[in-house]
């Protein structure tokens, strides 16, 4: 679920809610749906279109013309309706359909962009107030797959780092190694010497798209020190890959230096 919103100085809040987070289209599942809801107190007018984004280690950037020609799913998909109007409390279903089969086997991806018209919002400052018009927008990936490819991944460079408040975090990298992009969560387990294994933290919604070499993931462990033991990272599938362990690595943690 994605929440698209603006928190104003006034009690009212303008937003829409879009779910699910991502969709996968195939020849055997050629139709996908999104639900857009309006929990705000105003009428929302919106429109839908496609954008193409290239994945990087830390996020998205606008796709180059060459990348768009190679990886865009938009030419093979249709979305309807192209626009919507929602009264307060209303919702609408957006349908994405396979319009024509892509050439050959592989994976393509475009992002469904939802934009709403600007809303006049009051912003209050010391000594006065002003009115601004703010438009809202959010995008969500639609993945098109063809053929019998597989999704694979590995866990790469990993290190312990500290956050600004001194707590330990695990920085790791997930690299796609198959034909299709894996999707899942990174789970951190710890087994103290002589103790029992337990889940410390996990980070969800980790996609390792095939158009990037690796995805950086930081897992906050929420502690200032780890005792001697074994730290294990697992990249576990979600959605269509539910429960599948794509990759796992273990790291020995030495006893803390108490000097």
Written description of the protein model:
The protein has two domains: 2-146, Immunoglobulins (Immunoglobulin-like, Sandwich); 153-253, Immunoglobulins (Immunoglobulin-like). The radius of gyration is 22 Å and the shape is globular. It is mainly beta. The protein has one helix spanning 65-71; strands at 2-7, 13-19, 23-25, 31-37, 44-51, 53-55, 60-62, 77-80, 83-86, 91-98, 106-125, 128-146, 153-155, 159-162, 168-176, 183-192, 198-207, 215-220, 229-237, 245-253. It has a five-stranded antiparallel sheet, with no helix packed on it.
Key structural traits:
2 domains; five-stranded antiparallel beta sheet; Immunoglobulin-like; globular; single chain; 20 strands; five-stranded mixed beta sheet; 3% helix
Uncertain stretches: 6-14, 130-134
Strand content: over 45%
Major sheet attributes = 5 strands, antiparallel
- Return the string of H and E elements: EEEEEEEHEEEEEEEEEEEEE
Q: How many structural domains does the protein architecture include?
A: 2
Shape: globular
Structural class: mainly beta
Can I get a quick summary?
The chain has one helix at residues 65-71; strands spanning 2-7, 13-19, 23-25, 31-37, 44-51, 53-55, 60-62, 77-80, 83-86, 91-98, 106-125, 128-146, 153-155, 159-162, 168-176, 183-192, 198-207, 215-220, 229-237, 245-253. It has 259 residues and is an all-beta fold. A hairpin with a 2-residue loop joins strand 11 (106-125) and strand 12 (128-146).
């Amino acid at each position: 679920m994605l929440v698209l919103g603006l928190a104003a100085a006034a009690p009212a809040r303008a937003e829409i809610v879009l779910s699910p987070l991502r969709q996968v289209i195939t020849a055997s599942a050629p139709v996908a749906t999104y639900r857009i809801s309006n929990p705000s107190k105003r009428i929302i007018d919106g429109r839908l279109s496609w954008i193409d984004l290239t994945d990087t280690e830390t996020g998205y950037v606008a796709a180059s013309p060459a990348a768009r020609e190679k990886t865009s799913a938009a030419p093979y998909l249709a979305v309807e309706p192209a626009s919507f109007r929602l009264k307060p409390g209303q919702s609408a279903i957006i349908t994405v359909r396979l319009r024509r089969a892509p050439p050959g086997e592989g994976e393509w991806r475009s992002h469904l962009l939802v934009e709403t018209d600007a809303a006049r919002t009051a912003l209050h400052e010391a000594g006065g107030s002003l009115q601004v018009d703010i438009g809202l927008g959010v995008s969500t990936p639609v993945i098109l797959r063809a053929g019998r490819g597989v999704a694979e991944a590995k866990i790469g460079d990993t290190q312990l780092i500290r956050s600004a408040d001194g707590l330990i975090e695990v920085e790791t990298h997930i690299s796609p190694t198959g034909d299709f992009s894996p999707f899942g969560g990174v789970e951190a387990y710890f087994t103290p010497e002589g103790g029992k294994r337990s889940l410390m933290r996990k980070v969800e919604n980790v996609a390792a798209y095939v158009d990037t070499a690796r995805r950086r993931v930081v897992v906050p462990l929420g502690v200032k020190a780890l005792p001697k033991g074994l730290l294990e990272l697992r990249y576990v599938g979600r959605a269509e890959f539910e429960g599948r362990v794509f990759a796992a690595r273990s790291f020995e943690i030495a006893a803390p230096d108490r000097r």
